[in-house]
Amino acid sequence: MAIPGNFLSPTTESVDPNISGWAAKLNCTLTKGTGGRNGDGCLVVKSVAAGEMQARTVSSYPITPGTVYYCFADTAGVSTERIGIRWLSATGAEVAVSWSLTTLTASANWHRVSLAAVAPAGAAQAQVLLSSTEIGATVNHYWENVYLGLPIRTTGNLLPFNTESSELDASGWTTVVNATISRQVPVMNWSVTNYTAGGHTLAMTAVAAGNASILAVDRPTVTPGLEYLAYAYLQPPVVTAQAWLELRFYDSLGNQIQATRSTLAPPTPATGMYRQRVSAKAPANAATCSVAAGLDGASAGQVLRLETIVITAAPGVQAGTVLPYADGSFEQGVAGWTVASGVAAIARSSPWGSAAIDGSYSMRVSSSTATTSVLRSARVPVTGGVNWRAQIHAGADVLTWTSITVRVRWYDAANVDLGASTGTSYALPTTSWYGLASDAVAPANATQAAVEVVVVASAAASVLFVDKIALWEVLPLTDVTANSDGGYATLTLRELPVDGEVTVYRVAQDGTRTLVRGAGGLIDRQILTSDLLVVEDHEAPMGVPVYYWIEVYDVGGSRSTRSSSTITLTLDVNEAWLKDPGNPQRNLRVLVQTAPDWQRPIEQSKHVVRGRRNPVVLSGRRQGLEGELAVWTRSDDERHALHQLLDSGSTLLWQAAPGMGVTDMYVSVGQISETRVSRLAQEVWRAWSLPMTEQDMPVTVGVSGAAGRTWQDVLVEFATWNDLMDVYATWEDVFLDRRG
After folding, report:
1. Sequence-ordered list of residues with C-beta below 8 angstroms from that of 517, at least 6 positions apart, any chain
2. Count of CB atoms within 10 A of residue 629's CB?
3. What is the pLDDT of residues 62-81, one digit of tens each?
4. In this structure, what is the dihedral angle of CA atoms 265, 271, 273, 276, given to the nearest 10 degrees?
């Protein structure tokens, strides 16, 4: 899979199918190896003699001075290594070289090295450099999965790239107590597609024995009442010391008004990186927030490393859930859960990763005797008179639980208990994890609710794990809406299996099925990263009924199907849509002046045979339609929009209203003409002539989108509008984060 935004070609990035993207620079020869991660191939750099050896990209890539660029690679060998960016002038002369720190140790297993650097003045191009220092001749070092481009950061992160990654320096952090801050490059084997994890880590070193902590310098703004989530990978010292992460809120004067801590319970021995999460709701007087990390009970010289540090709006463990993240995922404790009755005890599971469905922890329920206990969540707001679904995920340590009942307890505005729903009871067949749900209609006067879990133990010392708990209003699994003004249909799919797959068809009146387009192209066995999928179908036909057929595959491959209701998009008979399938934000509805008179060209050769009356004609296959569409634009905005639509030269979709004798058609538009409709200078109408050639439907084009990008993402990177203007050419480029 190609790395998004990579300046390097797929061949250079993955070293597949050859090494043509790479050249030896110093003391080495290059060959292609096998056993890579991003495809089978990898780059083998072999030393000619003892000492440093370097390889570089064959190509140089255009860059802009003053801009931050980022590179990384996965590597393996018998020596330590580093990665660099070689800055070149417009004539190819070397201006400077920026190097990463060298890895702390060598490793024969794949691990990540990376670097972010500011392009210096005078630089116009850049190359990637790969470097290692070998102890002798004919020693191999391996490289793979190489990236050069703009910084890759977590979408939605309130912290800027350098604070998240420490790839430039450690300036995004400050000491609080008993600590020094530096950067280190330990050997870390990240997933090949984990592009936000780099080589540099933030390292906090305890100066003396005792507690030590550091704090992010940035203070992103927050919205009071909104729940936020902070997370980071933590690598605690091997010697026991309690590592923690803390989400802090500040008022408008900069005073700290709330701090919520989440402690890491690492496995033994703790040698890796462990993602720790902490969530909290911003208090009423909160204006900003930050994140802190530290060690309690540290020894002098102990080091805590951090990577991929994020603050973002807290996600729901299920789309639409009203339970706070802390109460649904148990990453920092049991939150608002209590034991309403019985002998059960509840606590967060330990150690990290031992029992979890969402995140790294779950709620551990233990019963000292064979009895019934009732567990209850904190109360949350609900709407009366509608159907709600409570769901938990449960897994038994051993099968000593007779039953587990999921139900909802209702309360009115005066906190009066209105009783619990009937609930649904389950018996766990094995010790695997199971999703257990129960539906109930809230009483008309209910304004609050709590999820209740009734557990019946059949033996003493019974242990049960509960995780990923949600309470949400039950909405249709499949919903479709016609947006005729925008020329598209919105399909909403709920309660999908995360990590499963989905296929979406549009079905016409005659039963013809057409795959619907998504961000990755046509949605055909698309992997699901969320239980909610919203698709805008900008290629739905005008004026004819259609519905959607959905095939859903769970992680085990089992298939289920759904279908939507029927919708019809409307269009005035005098208008037509011109659409860019890959960039629907450019779609434009235009007024038709004259429909095309069609031609269908054919390649033929005529041969006259002596003595024969009729020539011999050899024909190829008759081609598709060609004609000229005449349209009007009625304002300057429409005129600019049509230019933007046509500028890319991409294949477009032309849609007319039914009854015009024209079916929806993918077209390529040739040389256009734009003329005034009168001699009046102030006249804004324009007449356009668009020569069109019929094309096949583009099947690999995905819908360009921001994928969760918000104004907050822009705010954390750019201080002023002028800064934006230096980076982006258009507002569309801002939306897509497409930098010039």
Report:
1. 523, 537, 538, 539, 581, 701, 702, 703
2. 22
3. 999 999 999 999 999 999 99
4. 10
